Amino acid sequence: xxxxxxxxxxxxxxxxxxxxxxxxxxxxxxxxxxxxxxxxxxxxxxxxxxxxxxxxxxxxxxxxxxxxxxxxxxxxxxxxxxxxxxxxxxxxxxxxxxxxxxxxxxxxxxxxxxxxxxxxxxxxxxxxxxxxxxxxxxxxxxxxxxxxxxxxxxxxxxxxxxxxxxxxxxxxxxxxxxxxxxxxxxxxxxxxxxxxxxxxxxxxxxxxxxxxxxxxxxxxxxxxxxxxxxxxxxxxxxxxxxxxxxxxxxxxxxxxxxxxxxxxxxxxxxxxxxxxxxxxxxxxxxxxxxxxxxxxxxxxxxxxxxxxxxxxxxxx
Amino acid sequence: xxxxxxxxxxxxxxxxxxxxxxxxxxxxxxxxxxxxxxxxxxxxxxxxxxxxxxxxxxxxxxxxxxxxxxxxxxxxxxxxxxxxxxxxxxxxxxxxxxxxxxxxxxxxxxxxxxxxxxxxxxxxxxxxxxxxxxxxxxxxxxxxxxxxxxxxxxxxxxxxxxxxxxxxxxxxxxxxxxxxxxxxxxxxxxxxxxxxxxxxxxxxxxxxxxxxxxxxxxxxxxxxxxxxxxxxxxxxxxxxxxxxxxxxxxxxxxxxxxxxxxxxxxxxxxxxxxxxxxxxxxxxxxxxxxxxxxxxxxxxxxxxxx
Lengths: 316, 306
What we know:
The complex is a heterodimer of chains A (316) and B (306).
Chain A: H1 7-13, H2 23-54, E1 57-61, E2 70-74, H3 78-85, H4 87-119, H5 126-134, H6 141-152, H7 158-165, H8 178-203, H9 207-215, H10 220-231, H11 233-248, H12 252-257, H13 270-278, H14 284-315
Antiparallel strand pairs in A: 1-2
Helix pairs in contact in A: 2-14, 3-14, 4-8, 4-11, 5-8, 6-8, 9-10, 11-14, 13-14
Chain B: H1 31-58, H2 63-68, H3 79-125, H4 131-141, H5 146-160, H6 166-170, H7 177-190, H8 193-201, H9 206-217, H10 219-234, H11 238-243, H12 252-262, H13 269-290, H14 292-301
Helix pairs in contact in B: 1-13, 3-7, 3-10, 3-12, 3-13, 4-7, 7-10, 8-9, 10-14, 12-13
C-alpha cells in the first residue's frame, strides 16, 4: 500500500509504540484499512464532491437541440434557485415534516411501550412476541409496501372489506389519507428494531435501581415512567434522531405504492423529486443541487436534535 | 428508506451482564396487569403478523380468487401453479432477479463485513499515524444519509462508465462506515492485545494473526455485521433503480416493483407479485430466525464500548 512509505517515522515518533516493532507491524494497519478507505474515497467522498461540483453547472444546448453540441456552462447558484423555487420539491419537504411529526412519535411510543412490557414481568411468551414484532424488519421496505398496497386496495383488501361491512367506509389511498397509510407501512417495518434497541438498553440498567423503587412502594407503572424511561434517555434520543433522518429520506415505500394509487405524485418526497428530476427530467445538474439541499437539511436537522438533546441532558 | 433508522444504536448502551431473567422473584404482577399484558401483546402480534399471514394466504390463490374470495381465508390451493408461473414468466427472469439479489446482498455483505472487520481490527489493535483521522471520518460519515448519496453515486457511475453494470451497484455498498464502527467496537472488546502479542512472539505474521486469531475472536460480531449489512443491501432500492436499466441485472426488489407497475395493465401479474414477494422474503426470514441468537447477543456486545 502506498501509505506504508510514511510508516517508519510513525513508529519512531508514536508515543504508544510497542516494543520490537517490525516492518510488517508498521505497514499492516494501512494494508488492513486500505480497502475501506479506497472504496470510501471513491464511492462516498468523490460522489459528494461531484454532486456539489455539478450542481453549479447546467447543460447548454446549442444549435437546434438535435445533434447540436451540449456544453456544460457554469451557472452559479441557478440550480439552487430553481430547486428552492420548485413548488413540488418544497411541498415534498412539507409533506415529510407532517409525516415525521406523526410517524416518529407514534412509532417510538409503540416501541417504547413494547420494550417496557418486555422488560416487565407482566408479559409471557416473550421470545414469540418479540420475534413477531421484529419480523417485519426482515421484510424489505419495497416488499412491505407491496403487501400493504394490496391491503389498502378496495378490490383485494379484506381489511377495507371488513371495515365496509361494519359501516366504516375507509379509503386508505385517498389524497388525504395516503400519507398516513405510508406512515403505517413505516411503523410496521421499523418498530421492531427500535423496540429491540430500547429493550437492550432497559436490560442493561442495573436491577438494584428497580428493587429500591419497589421497596419504596412504587408501582410497576411508576417505576417504568419515572425511572426506566429516564435511564434509557440516550437510546431514545438516538432512535429519535435516526428516525427523523429516515423520514427525510423516504423513497422506497411511496415509490412502490405508486402502482396502486395515482395520489402519490412523482415528486411526493424530496428523494422522489431528486429521482424524477434526474431520470425523467433528464436534468442531472438540478438533481444534484436538490440532493445537496436534502443532504444539508438532514445534516442541520440532526445537528439541531443533538444540540437540543445535549442541552437537556446537561440540565439534569 | 425509513428502515435506515436501523441498527446504528447498539453502541450507546452499556453491556448487560449475563442476560438476567426479567421475571425475578418478588415481582408478582396483579391479575389485571397480566390481563393487560396479554391484550396488548395479542393486538400487537396480530398487527405485525397479519400482513405476512395475508401474503401466505394470497400466494395460494388464483388471480380470480385473489379478487373474489375473502382475503384472510384459504380458497382452492393453487400455490404450486403460482410458483410455476412466477418461475416461467418472462423467460424465468424472477429467478435471475433472486440470483442478482444474492450477488448484491450475499456476496456484497460478505465482502463488506470482511472489509469492515479488517478496518475495525486495525483501528483497535494498532496505534498508527492517521488512526484518529480515520476514526473521525468513520464517525462523521455516519451522518451522511445513504439514500441521498444514491443520486451523486449514480452521477459518478455515469462518469466512470459503470452505469448499468452489476459492479456499479455492488461496489458502492462495500464501504459501510457503520460496519467499521461496529467492527472497531467488537475488536476493542473481544481481541485482547496480549493474545495478538503472543501470536507475534510465536512468529506469526500480521496477516496470519488477523486471519487465524482476529477473525475467529470476532466471529459473533461478524455475524451481526453481516446480518445488518445483508438487510441494508436487500433494502437497497433507489441506487439500483437509478443505475440498472437492464432488467436482467436488477435485484428482486426492483424487479417486483416493476411487475407491480406493469400489473396496472396486465391483471394476471398481481398474483405473480404476491408469490414473488413471498418467495423473496423466505431466505431473509429464515436467516433471521436461525441467527436470532447472534443479532440479540450482537446488539448487546456491540454495546460494550463507548
